[in-house]
Structures are given as C-alpha cells and as structure tokens.
What we know:
It is a single chain. The chain has 192 residues and is mainly alpha-helical. It is built from 11 helices and no strands. It has helices at 2-12, 15-25, 32-44, 49-57, 59-74, 81-104, 110-131, 134-148, 152-160, 163-173, 178-191. Helix 5 (59-74) packs antiparallel against helix 6 (81-104) and helix 10 runs antiparallel to helix 11. The longest helix has 24 residues, at 81-104. It is globular. It starts with a helix and ends with a helix. The relative contact order is 0.10.
Amino acid sequence: LYATKVCHLLKSQGTIISFLSTIVMKSTLAQSTTALLALYTLANTFSRHFLAQYMLQHMDLVLESCLNIAETFSHQNDENIKIAKSNKKIRLASANIMINYAIIMSNKHVEEKIQLLSCCIDRLEVEMNSLNEMKMIYRYLVIIGTILYNDVNSIELAKDLDLLSILDKIMVKKDNVSNITEIINELKDVMN
C-alpha cells in the first residue's frame, strides 16, 4: 500500500526529480548546503526498488545534474577550508548517485550503462588530472568495475574509451594506495 501511494505521488508529481536536479544544477558556492541536501535526497531515493526504477527512468537528468555540479565544484580554488570541504562532499555525493545507478543496472540497460561508463571515465580523468583526490579516484574505479562486471559490451567500450591508458596514468600518479592498486589490477585483468 505504501509503495503504491508513493508511486502514485511520483507519477502525479513527476517534477520531484526535475526540482531536485534543478536545485543541484543551479547551485553556487553560497548554496552548496542546499545542493548537498538535494544530492543526498537523490541518493537516498535508490533505497527502495520502485524508487530506484523511477530514478532509472530519469537517469539523463540526474546524471547531467551530478556532472554539472561536480564540474562546478571541481574548479573552485578557494583557500577557505569550509568551501574546500563542501566541494569534496558535493563531488562525493555525486559519485554516490553514480554508484547507485551502476548497482541497479542489469545487462538489459545497455544504453544507460554506456552513458554512465562514459561519464565515470570523464570524471575519473578530471579527478586524476586536476584534483588528484584518491577517495574520488577510488569511487570512480569502483563504479567502473561494477559496470564492467560480466558485461562484454561494457568492457569493449571501456577499451575504446582508452581506460587502460588512464589506469596506467593513475598507477604512476597514485600515492601508494593499496586499494587503488588492487582495483586497477582487477580492472586490467577483466579488460585483457
């Protein structure tokens, strides 16, 4: 009964995802707390199966929001520690949403997997080249590994997107972080 009521509400109020995504996309540094709350709300939506399916239907909009806000907060070079922590939290929340998408996708969601894989590889390069934030690199590697798991098409796409050379660059740049080394080795094994 509860699930039916929520589904009915979401169908009749189809703008909930649009509303939250708009908050995320239009947020500035001054509104980072609001953006973070909206991202957490979107991430928590995956906790119920029927809501996760609803999120899958709106993946384009949500991913666009996540990428926009992560990009916006990746380029802030302010000395203020509070802003720097907010930037990291926003990028982590965006990555959490992508992890949730990777988990709920099955082999029948081929187009969505392609889109998510491409977005994650792009964000991985940004994190590696400009921010060198190991927690974020780790999360994107986990997302990519989840997408590639038992999916030949995704593996071939990752090869086409030159993931192997990106992994090699991370191995050179990393600060001897064993969990990153382990994931990179597993990804390389899967792709070879």
